[in-house]
Write a structure and sequence with these properties.
Layout lengths: L1 E5 L3 E10 L4 E8 L7 H7 L4 H94 L13
Antiparallel strand pairs: 1-2, 2-3
Length: about 160
């Protein structure tokens, strides 16, 4: 068991994870969790006779196994929490990427719309100018000596 000291006021409990099958530490520090005892397990696997192991378990009583069960549940909960935080960070990164992609598409769309409006405005002005010229020419030729019309007052 170890303690981590931070910002002058807080101590945090921690333990080294242990693989009871290999009888070796995993070298993974589990912050916020107390360590559990593997002493009887290890001693049994290393050759401690069964009678001594059983007597030890009796002396520890059910409270020792209850504490170990609670610690195991804490370890599982902590691992699930760490995994959930990892997935949450991954989802957050994906959301940020998608938001950047969406903004790029919106900017591109704005440019396309602006170009379309400019093109449409230019074509309308050209069409209106041509129509005005043809209309003035038609009015001049059809009036033959009558008072002519001029559409120069139309702002096109």
């Amino acid at each position: 068991m170890t303690l981590k000291y931070s910002d002058g006021t807080v101590f945090e409990n921690a333990c080294m994870d242990f693989d009871p099958n290999k009888l070796a530490p995993t070298y993974q520090v589990l912050w916020g969790l107390p360590g559990r005892s593997h002493a009887v397990e290890i001693a049994t696997k290393l050759g401690l006779d069964e009678v001594t192991a059983e007597m030890t378990q009796e002396l520890l009583g059910s409270s020792g196994s209850t504490v170990n069960e609670m610690i195991v549940k804490l370890e599982v909960t902590r691992r699930e929490e760490v995994e959930a935080l990892r997935k949450n960070a991954e989802i957050e990164r994906e959301c940020q990427r998608l938001e950047r992609e969406l903004n790029a598409i919106k900017n591109q769309n704005d440019e396309v719309v602006a170009d379309a409006w400019r093109t449409l405005d230019s074509e309308v002005r050209t069409y209106a100018g041509n129509a005005k010229t043809r209309l003035n020419a038609t009015l001049r030729t059809s009036s033959r000596g009558k008072v002519g019309f001029n559409l120069s007052f139309v702002g096109i």
